[in-house]
């Protein structure tokens, strides 16, 4: 017997230590190193040194127009919102240090839930500490073992995680494909519980769902319907209630999920519903129970902002104007966009690959413009996207400046 | 349902997805050998679901790593 036979296989030793639980991240570490070795500014560790307004900040030392914040309605510096937050901070302190079901429900938490009920004209509202937790909590609690969840393949990570945590049978269908959704609903065993999960606006490409048709089909098959309206609240629909309101089908939605971290301008998540038994969720929903509630200043700013958004028709009109103008100008300049027509306040500019996408992102930053660089695996079809989200506080002049920046950066990065 | 007949129908379905022309056996793995990405898996699963009028949930897909396991799962789902 030779010595070689007695030797175990030698595991490959990777630079930076022995193989361990972190070895699974090596491909990502490698990808990131290659990107940064090309000399590009790191797209994933930008620091905002000072924030000047909802649309401008000092980023990495430069004054920058912000076009990737989801701050759709520009509420972050609203004087009434700030005043409400300061007053609550003074009157109620910096935090609740407790769960909503123990010592963490203050009058402010009830007030923001009341504001949500009025905003959506619905009976019940439940506020979570983040939008992620709202999806995680509601989905995992209502769809359990033996139930079926039918959902769009491009759903947000918080939706997928909620599905996994609840242990229901998860059945995805092709993005926005009504026929594929119906086929799957038809095949679900008789008597099984069914939940259809859709989004109003899909945040990667900025496209909307044909909710009216899809919800009608879901209802025909006896499914409950949950719609995530995170990217439409405050902006889409006559009262800013979202895509379902805009398409006239909000009454058929069983659960609307939303967030305070976009149009509302702070942090937190929520679910609104007309279900007669909805209040029991406060006792059975673990991501609601087993975490501290939002700080008093946060719920006070959210409450004030939501009430102002009820009367923001002029801002909604201006945001639509901004979206249409930028979409048309980028398309005319020769960029490849995620949607043929502007459908939301998100405009996705499709990049040929990650390297040129990162180069374009850097060129834009040097021009003084911040957008989101979105890359696989967060993106559909493994695309690299420069995702722009407009704000009602962007002026018409800023939008024209943005167009010029895109044209110059596009030439510099070899995209145009 | 007969395993051979089921296999024959799945053999026909996988052909357009087998872009590299890998010789497929029961042991062929979808991600490692056929290099299917998540979108290809979704389209391939949808083709099988439509052909057999069944649902293969993500939970069930997690248990299926190779071609033989897929055929067995479809046979079982068809009853």
Automatic annotation (TrEMBL), chain A:
Cofactor(s), by name: pyridoxal 5'-phosphate
Residues covered by the Aminotransferase class I/classII large domain: 64-403
InterPro entries per the UniProt record, alphabetical: Aminotrans_II_pyridoxalP_BS, Aminotransferase_I/II_large, AON_synthase_class-II, PyrdxlP-dep_Trfase, PyrdxlP-dep_Trfase_major, PyrdxlP-dep_Trfase_small
EC number assigned by the record: 2.3.1.29, 2.3.1.47
Keyword Zinc: no
SUPFAM superfamilies listed in its UniProt record: PLP-dependent transferases (SSF53383)
PROSITE patterns in the cross-refs: AA_TRANSFER_CLASS_2
One function term, GO molecular function aspect: pyridoxal phosphate binding
Catalytic EC class: transferase
Domain of life where this protein originates: Bacteria
Pfam families: Aminotran_1_2 (PF00155)
Keywords: Acyltransferase, Pyridoxal phosphate, Transferase
Family to which the UniProt record says this protein belongs: Belongs to the class-II pyridoxal-phosphate-dependent aminotransferase family.
UniProt-recorded name of the protein: Glycine C-acetyltransferase/8-amino-7-oxononanoate synthase
Organism of derivation: Novosphingobium fluoreni
Automatic annotation (TrEMBL), chain B:
Transmembrane parts of this sequence: none
Gene3D superfamilies: ACP-like
Sequence ranges assigned to domain Carrier in this UniProt record: 4-78
InterPro entries: ACP-like_sf, PP-bd_ACP
Protein name in the entry: Acyl carrier protein
Species per Swiss-Prot/TrEMBL record: Novosphingobium fluoreni
């Amino acid at each position: 017997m030779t010595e070689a036979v007695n030797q175990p296989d030698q595991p490959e030793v990777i630079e930076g230590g022995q193989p361990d639980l972190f070895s699974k991240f090596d491909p990502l570490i490698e990808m990131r190193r290659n990107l940064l070795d090309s000399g590009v500014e790191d797209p994933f560790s930008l620091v905002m040194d000072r924030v000047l307004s909802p649309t401008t900040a000092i980023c990495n030392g430069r004054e920058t127009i912000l076009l990737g914040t989801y701050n759709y309605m520009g509420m972050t510096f609203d004087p009434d919102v700030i005043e409400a937050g300061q007053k609550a901070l003074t009157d109620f302190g910096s935090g609740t240090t407790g769960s909503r079901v123990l010592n963490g429900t203050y009058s402010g938490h009830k007030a923001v839930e009341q504001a949500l009920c009025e905003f959506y004209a619905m009976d019940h509202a439940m506020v979570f500490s983040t939008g992620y937790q709202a999806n995680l909590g509601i989905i995992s609690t209502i769809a359990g073992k033996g139930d079926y969840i039918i959902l769009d393949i491009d759903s947000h990570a918080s939706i997928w995680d909620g599905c996994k945590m609840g242990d229901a049978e998860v059945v995805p269908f092709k993005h926005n494909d009504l026929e594929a959704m119906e086929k799957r609903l038809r095949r679900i065993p008789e008597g099984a519980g069914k939940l259809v999960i859709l989004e109003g606006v899909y945040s990667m490409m900025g496209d909307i769902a044909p909710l009216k048709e899809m919800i009608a089909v879901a209802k025909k098959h006896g499914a409950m319907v949950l719609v995530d309206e995170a990217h439409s609240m405050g902006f889409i629909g006559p009262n800013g209630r979202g895509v379902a309101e805009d398409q006239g089908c909000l009454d058929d939605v069983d659960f609307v999920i939303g967030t305070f971290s976009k149009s509302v301008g702070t942090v937190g998540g929520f679910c609104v519903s007309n279900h007669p038994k909805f209040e029991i969720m406060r006792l059975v929903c673990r991501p609601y129970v087993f975490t501290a509630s939002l700080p008093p200043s946060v719920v006070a700013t959210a409450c004030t902002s939501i009430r102002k958004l009820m009367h923001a028709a002029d801002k909604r009109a201006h945001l639509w104007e901004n979206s249409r103008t930028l979409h048309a100008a980028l398309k005319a300049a020769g960029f490849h966009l995620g949607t043929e027509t502007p459908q939301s306040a998100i405009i996705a500019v499709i990049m040929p690959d990650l390297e040129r996408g990162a180069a374009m992102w850097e060129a834009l930053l040097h021009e003084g413009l911040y957008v989101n660089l979105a890359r696989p695996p967060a993106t559909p079809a493994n695309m690299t996207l420069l995702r722009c989200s407009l704000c009602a506080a962007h002026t018409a002049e800023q939008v024209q400046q943005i167009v010029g920046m895109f044209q110059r950066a596009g030439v510099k990065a070899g995209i145009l | 349902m007969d395993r051979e007949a089921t296999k024959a129908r799945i053999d026909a379905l996988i052909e357009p997805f087998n872009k590299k022309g890998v010789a497929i056996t029961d042991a062929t793995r979808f991600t490692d050998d056929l290099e299917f990405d998540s979108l290809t898996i979704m389209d391939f699963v949808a083709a099988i679901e439509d052909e057999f009028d069944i649902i293969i949930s993500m939970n069930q897909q997690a248990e299926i790593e190779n071609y033989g396991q897929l055929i067995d799962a479809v046979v079982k789902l068809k009853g």
